[in-house]
Design a protein that fits this description.
Number of helices of chain B: 12
Number of strands of chain B: 0
Order of helices and strands of chain A: HHHHHHHHHHHHH
Number of strands of chain A: 0
Number of helices of chain A: 13
Largest interface: A-B, 48 and 44 residues
Structural class of chain B: mainly alpha
Order of helices and strands of chain B: HHHHHHHHHHHH
Strand content of chain B: under 5%
Helix content of chain A: over 70%
Oligomer: heterodimer
């Protein structure tokens, strides 16, 4: 088990290192970051001044090393636009995004798992077909459009939910639904497949033969085993969701890290963008690492992989 | 005596794989619906100049924000006009071109990258496999929307840039699926046989492996096409994809957003068309998987 954890941790660190290099290289995609920063009207001297001020005149690898070294200590430089340390900017905004992500994954699990179980109990029934249709339709629904439709319905027509902001729990209802439905199809399909698999196994037949009640068989015996892969999928989906928060937060004007990403991209604020790409990746890497370790702990067969 | 066919001597004609495929496809409602809608929208995209009642770029300040016919508008603009007086139906029709073109080309680019990586990993194994698996991990760790937005913002939004960015970002599913399929195929006896008779590696890859993973490849291409179309619309909606005045459905939703309070149809119509197209492509992809490789159903 320890060997598995160490091996998996090494891989996670290597992936994190590579991602950090890619997000740093983005700065150089524009050709000359100093010229891009100075703007179109800047003179040659202005550009040179900026080049030395930000240290763009040094070799790229040196700049990368310095950036990474500070980043590891939590220093991502200063935002070009807000003129504030990037780290504190992001820390301020991350709470909203984390809260949204937690609400989103909770919503997805609370809706998708019961639906998946119901579908598995009676395969090919109306519930099963409805669940399948919902999961296919869910994958095709553009989240920005879904969000706007909810605003039209619940904020404009019925006026029961606020269209934007983050002041109370009511502001989080629609963003939670929009962010959460995205993870539903995958969770539902996995729950359904897992339950179908488990319900056909011998120990379920034994439990039934012993005279255990149907609910007891379903939830105490079957779901406990079927849910194992779902837990790790939920962790991975949570990582994806934080990356997807950029769309939801911009639709509902929720000022979280996703909104900050959108703002800083639109304003060419590269230090903030680099830091956000790195942080969102770190969340994903951490979640998948934890999911793998959890899986290996619950199911020793996974440890060899 | 001889006019009654003897069931023992009568030759039994087993259906060819192609016929079995056709039979299965004919009974698959989702596949037929998906193919029908995608085919129809593809025709609309191809014949856009013939079908569009107006020039999608022609502005007319006299006829701004006219409602669609079902909301009391006139038949000269069946789906009304936008905030610049441009005919909404014509923009929608030309928007199909943008969506489908981006979907097809981006899926092809990422298909070439992902298939090459996946097949190489699955066939050669060892270090090649380790490197490819690592690259897939790295790619999955990057937040797609964020990276795509940032790159488009740096390089400037245009159709070519959006297509290239999506093509270079969406290869992960190709690599994962093609790797698994190749791994499965390359353990078969006929691959060993081909190697034993001295077939070269490129020959084995092209004539033994590729035809056998082709069905899976088609399924992934379809599903990634839908993915690319959704992402383009998202980027354009956020203002960092296809730039105005190009008619893109995501951009139309974004432009209509400001007038959503009074004219919600400006947002509803382009989004609904986008939803239907992506749904149809997904139905087609799921259907193709059921028909060609039923064992891969999850």
């Amino acid at each position: 088990m320890l060997a598995f954890i160490l091996k998996r941790l090494g891989l996670a660190l290597l992936v994190a290192f590579t991602v950090s290099f890619i997000s740093f290289s983005l700065l150089f995609l524009s050709g000359d970051p100093a010229a891009a920063l100075a703007g179109e009207t800047a003179s040659g001297e202005d550009i040179e001044a900026i080049r030395t001020l930000y240290g763009f005149d040094r070799p790229m690898l040196v700049q990368y090393g310095e950036w990474l070294f500070s980043a590891v200590r939590g220093d991502f430089g200063e935002s070009y636009y807000f003129k504030l340390p990037v780290a504190s900017l992001i820390a301020d905004r991350l709470q909203v995004t984390m809260l949204l992500g937690l609400c989103g994954i909770t919503f997805a699990l609370l809706t998708a798992v019961p639906l998946g179980v119901a579908a598995a109990i009676r395969p090919n029934s109306i519930i099963d077909r409805l669940a399948l249709f919902l999961s296919v339709a869910g994958q095709a629904l553009p989240s920005f459009w879904f969000g706007l439709i909810l605003i039209v319905l619940f904020s404009i027509k019925f006026q029961i939910l606020p269209p934007s902001g983050a002041e109370s729990w009511r502001h989080f209802v629609m963003p939670t639904v929009v962010l959460g439905y995205y993870a539903m199809p995958a969770i539902m399909r996995l729950t359904r497949a897992g339950m179908l698999d488990v319900l056909n196994s011998d120990y379920i037949r034994t439990a039934r033969a012993k005279g255990a009640g149907e609910w007891r068989v379903l939830f105490k015996h079957a779901l406990r085993n079927a849910i194992i892969p779902v837990v790790s999928l939920a962790a991975v989906q949570m990582g994806f969701m934080l990356g997807g928060s950029i769309v939801v937060e911009s639709v509902f004007a929720l000022h979280g890290a996703g909104y900050l990403a959108w703002e800083s991209i639109a304003r060419n604020d590269l230090p903030t963008v680099q830091a956000l790409i790195l942080i969102f990746s770190m969340f994903y890497i951490t979640f998948t690492f934890l999911a793998d370790v959890l899986n290996a702990w619950l199911d020793p067969r996974m440890r060899s992989a | 005596m001889s006019d009654i066919a003897d069931p023992l001597t009568q030759e039994f004609q087993a259906p060819s794989p192609r016929e079995m495929l056709k039979q299965r496809a004919k009974g698959h409602l989702g596949l037929l619906t998906g193919m029908g809608i995608v085919g129809l929208l593809a025709l609309v995209a191809i014949f856009a100049p013939l079908l569009a009642p107006h020039d999608p770029y022609a502005q007319s300040l006299m006829t701004r924000m006219e409602p669609p016919v079902f909301l009391g508008g006139e038949w000269s603009h069946p789906l009304g006009t936008d905030h610049l007086g441009r005919d909404y139906l014509s923009r929608l029709i030309y928007g199909a071109r943008v969506s489908l073109m981006i979907g097809v080309i981006a899926a092809l680019i990422s298909g070439v990258i992902g298939t090459t990586m996946g097949v190489a990993a699955g066939y050669f194994g060892g270090k090649v496999d380790a490197v490819v698996t690592f690259l897939i991990n790295v790619r999955l760790a990057m937040p797609v929307v964020l990276v795509a937005l940032a790159v488009v913002a740096i390089l400037g939004g245009s159709l070519t840039v959006v297509i290239c960015v999506l093509g270079l970002l969406l290869w992960d599913r190709f690599a994962v699926v093609m790797r698994a399929s190749t791994l499965q195929i390359s353990r078969r006896d006929y691959i060993a046989a081909a190697r034993a008779v001295g077939a070269s590696t490129p020959r084995i890859l092209l004539t033994e492996i590729m035809p056998n993973i082709f069905n899976n490849l088609i399924v992934v291409i379809t599903l990634e096409m839908a993915h690319a179309i959704l992402l383009e619309a998202t980027l354009s909606f956020l203002g960092l994809g296809v730039q105005p005045p190009t008619p893109s459905w995501g951009l139309m939703v974004s432009e209509g957003k400001n007038m959503m309070l009074f004219e919600p149809w400006l947002v509803l119509i382009p989004g609904a068309v986008l939803f239907v197209l992506v749904l149809a492509i997904n139905l087609m992809g799921d259907g193709l998987r059921d028909v060609t490789a039923p064992e891969n159903r999850s």
